Every structure is written in structure tokens, then in C-alpha cells.
TrEMBL record, chain A:
Transmembrane region(s): 27-44, 56-75, 95-119, 173-196, 251-269, 281-300, 320-340, 360-384, 404-422
Top-level taxon: Bacteria
Main location: membrane
UniProt topology in membrane: Multi-pass membrane protein
Residue ranges of domain Citrate transporter-like in the record: 16-367
Protein's UniProt name: Citrate transporter-like domain-containing protein
A matching Pfam family: CitMHS
Subcellular locations according to the entry: Cell membrane
Recorded family membership: Belongs to the CitM (TC 2.A.11) transporter family.
Protein keywords: Cell membrane, Membrane, Transmembrane, Transmembrane helix, Transport
PANTHER family: P PROTEIN
Length: 427, 91
């Protein structure tokens, strides 16, 4: 191994350690790690820029703009209150409906946005029912991570995988991941109801209070709502067709975002742009450059070779190793840097002789996205909900979350294990 | 704590304080006051704090506003700023 490779590994490990320790903001750490790769001459500036996946960034920015504008219409609050009323104010039904809404929304919006939209309404519904909101919040965390796994645009790991592997378009993600996510969701929701059923009891008077809410008044701008929903619908159709249209997913998302801005006018521009999570965008940029150091110095190739030796190059064993490794790793470390490291490694495995890489990609997607449910720090949505709960005076502890979520994560990975085995290696 | 007054011909406010915060039941009696209450609502829904002040409309046209403990004074000041209250003062 060359000195350059050793330097690259050292910078990568130190950066990773700082990201895990959360002593400094992860964006500052990732960008610093990426810059060090360039400063030490491990990659040139041109190589660094070449490794930044602008498709991932464009997709994220486009969707963030679309959601920022749509959120202003009040439609998400409308849906949540409507669900609570359809549930007749009964807490267990509300938990089920809010979990399903969170999962579906997370499949098409990013998980953090989804929980930011659903959690405030959840607090209010729980408060009106005089219930502890924590069972609802934990259910929303878990179903948001599970729902996000179902589509190319649902979770950053999927966006990164879809962006790096052009043949895996939106429809392929939907066809390969959504069936198993529906099964996992059904099992998860049943488990959540069984776990929390004793805490979810309220009086008929309090349930009746929910029925008095007027969800129609939550729609603040019906013209904007029509425009937003039309463009959102067109964008989702665009994602479904992007493979056939030979357009990248970022092109679809940015077209949707700027079409909506064209329709709404410049009044919304500044606010929408300010709501883009630039921290996340720069975090991605830093990571892409950081991992490029490992790619350019041959470290990734070496790791891929070692993994292949471990599994004997057998596609089934390699897929299952990736599934479980991604799940356990993603439960404890951020799944975005993990996936950023795994993508070039899986590509290298293709070069080393595994002809059909698809089961490996689906294993990575399932492991990395579902693994985020394992602990409170496993995914951004978990940390955000815990932060919001704490602000409200409800503490979601690391171990109290893990006690519920880790076994559910293991169950979901066992189901995914069976699915990968049966669908890609037996049928 | 704040003491506040309002024009009873235009608005009626009932406040319930608990450990987590305060809940305000607001009955508006004029359309201009409804618009002012909606201004307050837009102001809080437009900020980046998602759980500070939560507005809910009821079928009978009244509002329920759930305010986090640390935001009660800010909420009242902004309700005053948008002319939903006539006066506020320290008690």
C-alpha cells in the first residue's frame, strides 16, 4: 500500500471518528476531510470535482424546493387531522393511520421533511387526547425510515445508489423495494400496536374533541395547493418515466421545482431557496471528495477484494453480508457516509467478477435505510424527532428508543434477508 | 407573567396553563379579527420553529392555540402586535 493510500485512510478514519462523535457539526467535519484529501495531493481538485455526484445534489435540492413551497399550503396538516378524524379520535387507530401516512409521505419526500411536517400535528393530537406523544413519535420515526426505503427518492442512501447506477431507475426501485417494504410495514405496525396498546387509552370525551377540528381551515392557499399538487404529481410521473425518457432524476426534480416557481412567481423564490438544507448539501459534497481519496488510491479496490475473499465471491453470501453489515453499521453511524463508501466498493466487486450486482444494490439499500431504525442516532429523522420531543418536554432516551426500535429493525432485516434470498437467488 | 386585555366585542380568549405550555381557546366575533388571528398564525407557521405555537381551527369557527411554555410571552406579544389584544403588561 502506498503512502498516499495510508494518508487517505488516516484522513478518512479521523473524519469518520469526528462524524460519529458529533463533537463538531458533521458538515464542517466532512468538508474538512474532503479539503484535506485535496490539500495533501491525494486527489487533484479536478478529480475531487469529478467525484462529486451532482445528480444526487440536484435531486435533493429540487425536492427540498418543491416540499418547501407545498408545505406552505397546509396540506400535510390537513391530511393528518383528516386521518385523526377518520380514526374517530381513537388513539390506536390514529397511531396506525399516522404511521401509514408517514411511511407513504417518506417514500416521496425526504424523511426529515416528513417528520418535521407530521410531528407538530402529532403533538397537538396527543395533547388533545391527553396522551404521552412518545409512542406516536417512535412509530413515526420507524415508519418514516421504512417508508423511505421503498423508492429512489425516499432516503439519501437510495438517492445515492440510484444516482451512481444509471440502470437502477425509479421504477426498478419501486418494483424491487416497495413489495418488501409493504410487508415490513405491516409487521412493524402490528408490533407497534402490540407494544403501545396499553398506553393508548383515552376517554370518549377527548376523542370527541378531535372530531371538532376543522381540517379544511388548515388549507391556507388553495390556488397554491392546486399548483403544488399538480407539479408534485407531474414530478412523480417524471420519476417513473425518467429511465424511458433518458433523463437523470435530478433533471426531473429540478424541472419540477423551477416549474412550480415559474407558476408561483418570485415571491416564493427566496423563502424556498432559504429552506434548502444547505448543511446537508455540503455534507454530501465533503463525503464525495473524502471517499474519492480512497477510490483514487486503490483502498476501495483492496477492501472489495478482501470482502470477495471472505464470501468466496459468492453473490448470495456477498449480498447477505452487505445487508447485515449495512444494517448494523447504519444503526450506529450515519448511513450516508457508509453508503458513500460502499458504492465504489460494490462497483469494484463487479469488476472483480460478480456479474449481477442488482441483489447487492438492493441489499445495500435495505440494510442502510432500515438499519437507521436501530438506534436514536441511526438516521437524521430520529435525531430531529428526539430534538423536537425534548423541546416539548418529552425525553426520548437512547436506550428507551433502542429497546423498542432495535428488535423491530432486526425483524425487518430478517424479513429483508428472506426476501433477497428468495427473490434473487431462488425464484 | 403577562396580564392582557382584549376587546370583548371582537374576541374572547380562554387560557389553560399546564406544565407543557398553555392552550388558548379563541372565539372570534368579527371577520377583521379573524384576519388578524390568521396573521398571527401565518407569522408563527412561517418560522423555522415547528412546535412553538400550534394553531388549530374548530368546526364552530373558533381556534385552539397550543403554545410551548417558553413561547407564551412571545405569542402574547405577537398577538398584541397584530392587534388581537388591546394591552399587555407585566403582572
Amino acid at each position: 500500500m502506498t503512502n498516499q493510500a495510508l494518508f487517505a485512510i488516516a484522513i478518512f478514519l479521523v473524519t469518520y471518528a469526528f462524524i460519529i462523535s458529533e463533537k463538531l457539526h458533521r458538515t464542517i467535519v466532512a468538508m474538512s476531510g474532503g479539503i484535506l484529501m485535496v490539500l495533501f495531493g491525494i486527489v487533484s481538485q479536478e478529480q475531487a470535482i469529478h467525484h462529486i455526484d451532482f445528480n444526487t445534489l440536484g435531486l435533493l435540492i429540487g425536492m427540498m424546493i418543491l416540499v418547501a413551497i407545498t408545505a406552505q399550503t397546509g396540506v400535510f396538516k390537513y391530511v393528518a387531522i383528516r386521518a385523526a378524524k377518520v380514526a374517530k379520535g381513537k388513539p390506536i387507530r390514529i397511531l396506525v393511520y399516522l404511521s401509514l401516512i408517514t411511511a407513504v409521505a417518506s417514500a416521496f419526500l425526504d424523511n426529515v421533511t416528513t417528520v418535521l411536517l407530521i410531528v407538530p400535528v402529532t403533538f397537538s393530537i396527543a395533547r388533545q387526547l391527553e396522551l404521552n406523544p412518545i409512542p406516536f413519535l417512535i412509530s413515526e420515526i420507524i415508519t418514516s425510515n421504512a417508508g423511505g426505503t421503498a423508492t429512489l427518492i425516499g432516503d439519501p442512501p437510495n438517492i445515492m445508489i440510484g444516482s451512481s447506477v444509471p440502470e437502477l431507475d425509479f421504477m426498478k426501485f419501486l418494483v424491487n423495494l416497495s413489495p418488501i417494504i409493504i410487508v415490513i410495514m405491516a409487521v412493524t405496525v402490528v408490533c407497534l400496536v402490540l407494544i403501545y396498546r396499553k398506553q393508548l387509552v383515552t376517554s370518549p370525551e377527548l376523542s370527541a374533541k378531535i372530531m371538532q377540528l376543522n381540517e379544511r381551515d388548515e388549507i391556507t392557499d388553495s390556488r397554491l395547493l392546486k399548483k403544488s399538487l399538480t407539479v408534485m404529481g407531474l414530478t412523480i410521473i417524471g420519476f417513473m418515466l425518467h429511465g424511458a425518457l433518458h433523463l437523470e432524476s435530478a433533471t426531473i426534480a429540478l424541472t419540477g421545482a423551477f416549474l412550480l416557481l415559474l407558476l408561483t412567481g418570485e415571491h416564493y423564490l427566496e423563502d424556498a431557496i432559504s429552506k434548502v438544507e444547505w448543511n446537508t448539501i455540503f455534507f454530501f459534497i465533503g463525503l464525495f471528495v473524502l471517499v474519492s481519496g480512497l477510490v483514487e488510491t486503490g483502498v476501495i479496490k483492496k477492501l472489495a477484494t478482501e470482502a470477495m475473499n471472505l464470501t468466496g465471491g459468492d453473490p448470495l453470501n456477498t449480498s447477505l453480508l452487505i445487508l447485515w453489515l449495512s444494517a448494523i453499521a447504519s444503526a450506529f453511524v450515519d448511513n450516508i457516509p457508509f453508503v458513500a463508501t460502499m458504492i465504489p466498493m460494490i462497483k469494484e466487486m463487479g469488476a472483480l467478477g460478480i456479474t449481477n450486482l442488482e441483489p447487492l444494490w438492493w441489499s445495500l439499500a435495505l440494510g442502510a435505510c432500515l438499519g437507521g431504525n436501530g438506534t436514536l442516532i441511526g438516521a437524521s429523522a430520529n435525531v430531529i424527532v428526539a430534538g423536537l420531543a425534548s423541546k416539548e418536554g418529552y425525553h426520548i432516551g437512547f436506550f428507551s428508543f433502542m429497546k423498542v426500535a432495535f428488535p423491530l429493525m432486526i425483524i425487518s432485516i430478517m424479513i429483508a434477508h428472506l426476501y433477497v434470498y428468495l427473490r434473487y437467488f431462488i425464484w | 407573567m403577562f396580564h392582557y386585555t382584549y376587546e370583548e366585542k371582537e374576541i374572547e380568549i380562554k387560557e389553560v396553563v399546564s406544565e407543557q405550555g398553555a392552550s388558548f381557546q379563541i372565539i372570534v366575533k368579527t371577520e377583521s379579527m379573524r384576519e388578524r388571528v390568521k396573521e398571527v398564525r401565518r407569522y408563527f407557521e412561517g418560522n423555522k420553529d415547528y412546535t412553538d405555537v400550534m394553531f388549530f381551527s374548530r368546526e364552530d369557527g373558533s381556534f385552539e392555540v397550543i403554545v410551548r411554555t417558553d413561547m407564551i410571552e412571545s405569542f402574547l406579544i405577537d398577538a398584541f402586535r397584530f392587534k388581537c389584544l388591546q394591552s399587555i403588561c407585566w403582572e
